[in-house]
Amino acid sequence: MMKSVFASGLLCCLGLFAFCHAAIGQSARPVPVIFDSDMGPDYDDVGAIAILHAFADSGKVKILATMASTKYDGVAAVFNVFNTYFNRPTLPIGVPKGEALTLRDWQHWSDTVIANYPHHIRHNDEVADAVALYRQLLATQPDTSVTIITVGFFTNLANLLHSGADRYSALTGEELVRKKVKQLVSMAGSFPSGKEFNVEKDAAASQWVFERWPSPILFSGFEIGRKIKTGLPLVQNKAISKSPVKDVFRISLPLAKEDSAGRMSWDETAVLVAVNGYAPSYTLHRGTMTVSPDGRNAWQDGAGSHAYIVEKLSPDVMQDQINRMMMHQPAGSKNEAPNTIKKF
Ligand SMILES: [Ca+2]
Hints:
Radius of gyration: 19 Å
Distance between the termini: 42 Å
Order of helices and strands: HEHEHEHEHEHHEEHHEHEHHEHEEEH
Largest sheet: 11 strands, mixed
Structural class: alpha/beta
CATH architecture: Alpha-Beta Complex
Bound molecules: calcium ion
Helix content: 25-40%
CATH superfamily: Ribonucleoside hydrolase-like
């Protein structure tokens, strides 16, 4: 459906406000974040959730929930391992209970962390349906306050937009997003055009979301994270001896030749720009992303409510920051890695 000129203009203004706000840095209040991840098959999701918890420990983020966009057996347990490791064992977890992908890691890091680290959630049926949890959380948050970060598929967000009134809210999903969500920050797409995993795996969901999402969307595309290689300093840090984050990188990095200098860091960039803003490392390219039925994405320049980030500084700057943040140790950890919170 075509938006009215007024609605488009208003959305554009709101979009500019959100992006400008991100550019000048966040307020002292923690940013309320819902993190939506496929948590495998790749393992940059692990770097991303580590960084998210590091931001939460530094007071910059309040994590509302961690959501899975894949529903392989054990994905809820994997989220619970990382949340428990970072001293948030009761952090809500959502898993898609309807039709969804079941992709998982081939390196077997998820099996290893489930076997070796504390967690009280064992099975996916112990956690909420992702859409129900989105609705429950959004309904209770201040208007235009929530940042959603996706580093996986758009299954949950499409289902959220499709959702109708329920016991949590009389609003439809689209109305709830329009009212409560400040911005969506996604590692998705390849810019200005291409075919990217997160978009094409559930292309119908991606199409639905990018055509209808009623708040600004900020994209970190494939071309951004591809140049940022991380994980080696963590793996080589002898002071960190018992960490599921380190174990994932220790197991996975040697398994692929292309990872000899570190794993490409797509998902971590989405968390960084969502919390710290896109400046000073990036500039914005504004317009509208469209997705074709086969999952290819294209771009139309203009004053749309979408923007993708464009490199301004060397990728080494982000690489150093991600490497440092991935070594953040939770309070009470027996590991002796330097606490880097103050540098975030
Ligand atoms: Ca991912």
